[in-house]
Amino acid sequence: MSKAKLEKLINVVSKKNPSDKDLQKMGLSRADFDNYRRNIMSKKKSYNRIMSDEEKKVITTEAFGYLVKLVNSNTITSHHFENMINISTQFCKITRRKASKKMIDDILDFVVFSGMDKLPNKDAMEFLSMQESVKFEEVN
Fold first, then answer.
1. DSSP 73
2. Structural domain boundaries in the chain
3. Which of 42, 53, 69, 93 falls between 20 and 30 A from 7, CA-CA?
């Protein structure tokens, strides 16, 4: 596609409601246009985030990558992601241990998938601290 034709297409598609005449000039039907716009608008953008220096001290790179993968696959929301980082940070301050992928998985099971994500972090942490299956790595 030539640069001029691509620019025309972008101009037509970027209009809120292009005329049928404009669409016809581009060789598009109204249905094609609506389908094209719907597909573009529904594309989920990947969740990109960099670990802060403080987060590097409380969560392993593997665990962080695991959370990013879960967000990008729509298994958890970005809210759940940030909540997991917050809980890991608070746990690390209490236990002096670094959150591993296994620990993150255990917390997700308890907090997110059991419906406890509605609880305040403090209550979720109290519940989790009573669980024997949550494992941490030593913080150096």
1. T
2. 3-42, 53-138
3. 42
DSSP 106-127: HHIIIIITTSGGGS-HHHHHHH
Q: 82 near 51, Cβ under 8 Å?
A: no
CA distances from 36 to 6, 7, 17, 23, 63 (A): 15, 16, 13, 12, 37
In 3D, which of 101, 68, 61 has the Cα closest to residue 82? Answer: 68
Contact criterion met (CB below 8 Å) for 56 and 65: no
Instruction: Quick: pLDDT tens for 60-75.
Output: 999 999 999 998 888 8
pTM of model > 0.70 = no
Cα separation, 66 vs 104, whole angstroms:
9
CA 25 to chain centre: 39
Cα separation of 61 and 50, whole Å? 10
